[in-house]
Amino acid sequence: MYELLESINSPEQLRKLDRRELHTLAEQLRGFLVNSVAQTGGHLSSNLGVVELTIALHYVFSTPEDRIVWDVGHQTYPHKILTGRREAMSSLRKPGGIAGFPRRDESIYDTFGTGHSSTSISAALGMAIAAQKTGSDRHSIAIIGDGAMTAGMAFEALNNAGAMDANLLVILNDNDMSISPNVGALTNYLAKLLSGPLYTTMRRSGEKMLGVVPPVREFAKRAEEHVKGMVTPGTLFEEFGFNYIGPIDGHDIDVLIATLGNIRELKGPQFLHIATQKGHGYQPAEDNPGKYHGVGKFDPSNGCSIAQAGKKTYTQVFSDWLVDMAKQDKRLIGITPAMCDGSGLNAFAEQFPDRFYDVGIAEQHALTFAAGMACDGLKPVVAIYSTFLQRAYDQFIHDIALQNLPVMFAIDRAGLVGADGPTHAGSFDLSYLRCIPNIVIMTPSDENECRQMLYTAYQHNGPSAVRYPRGGGPGAAISSTMQALEIGKGEIRRQGSKIAILAFGSMLTPTLEAGEKLGATVANMRFVKPLDKALVKNLASTHELIVTIEENAIMGGAGAAVMEALQASGLETPVLCLGLPDAFIEHGVHETMLAECGLNASGIAAAIEKRVTK
Prior knowledge:
It contains 26 helices and 19 strands. The chain is α/β, with parallel strands linked by helices. The strands form four sheets. A seven-stranded mixed sheet has the order 9-8-10-11-13-12-17, sandwiched between helices. Strands 2-3-4-6-5 form a five-stranded parallel sheet, sandwiched between helices. Helix 17 (363-375) runs parallel beside helix 19 (393-401) and helix 22 packs across helix 26 (601-612). The model is unreliable at 177-183 and 226-231 (pLDDT under 50).
């Protein structure tokens, strides 16, 4: 079924194939990809769109000596398959298996670790300069999608690269921009012509000859831009200092190889624009590429999911609340940096399209955009993953908190995230947010508490954040009504003696189980900031040991806040802080990962018993 593909275990073997065999290889690679992801889950649409490009890159360039940097990493499955990891695809995103993103410690072909977007051009430029400095003639190639090009960092890198004489190739994989229809026989031909030696030689000779007559040279330059601008959309990238080529059909392997082969001989910054289709070659993904961006296990014959329906997730709780709140308050605005589906804004976007803003992969802009709205009376709600909020830290501090603006944050994927691994884990948000003045931080322990906290945050006249984990909670009944909680007030959920366990957010359920075993008092703290200092002081005065538990890094987290409160009160009650260790936690099954960190009921009880018996 995959005879040719199974004969390829390295790009070196790929480069020995006859060009005519590459079409068969692409067909087999695409079929293998669909069947493999159907068994493991993962990213599909984006990977199907780069099959031909991946083959062409490894066929033309001498990898791994030539450096290929894939942006985000969602589209690296074909790359992994062709670089010796075909058999390992059955372990994709599983404990001990290969990662869903490029990892430098996984393969010499993974030149740069990428999980967040828009970093590829910067990294590849750094590699190109390193090649210059070390006297190497290796090539540096960045592959970036049109979505990732919405981020300011990509344009910062383009601006810097265009001013240098580094041998850098940037490939724009365009699968959604309006310029895609320009692809066709004429533009494919022009791309090969503009990347070929004849055009390059004529251009350099003309520049040299006209250099002694500046007005004529400037006229020629403008004339060239005008002619190229009529048939290509590359004027912007030319202004950055790149030699623009394209757009070309990203699924025409012959055109790709011919064009890349020409570009390989060129010097300086080059920009190749290719047009592809997400989900190409698999009809269900072509029809609905968004649905197949990230999938669970599915039946490859029809694309239907085989996952069982589960309880309502925190993301769905937020989605329902947002719609309900929007019906009550016309000032509410929903904002997301390119995560409409993942953050649960689809229903809101459908019902309130004029109040929904997807700003693209531009987290910094999203926050300052929200701040501007808050200045003039609107009530912005920013739905964002914990790991992506990291990218806009300065905007959070300078543009929102410093001005004490009522911008609300619904922080999804807080804590460990399972198969997506450390690049997407929200392990640090309590630590990096807690130190910021003016902010209120809430951690719901169940689905209903999440709904009430979202309402509480929305009513607060200042920066606020509700952080919740991926997936579902304990299954609490969700009230249709909404009532604001008293800010900074926790609650006792179990009365015990000697040991008081202070649980934050998702850790309450296993803590209650551990508390039963230990006969301990259990508090649902609810607020990380402002912390319920009165409750902390009372528990420290009446118990022999205080234990804090959070699904966040121990360093600087909620437990640190409790210790600071005790120190300020002059109390010397011993404190045991449990949470995520000072390490990046590898991908796996969420429940297993928590257990390995000692954050399940038995782990919590064991850690406390060990401390008590010292």
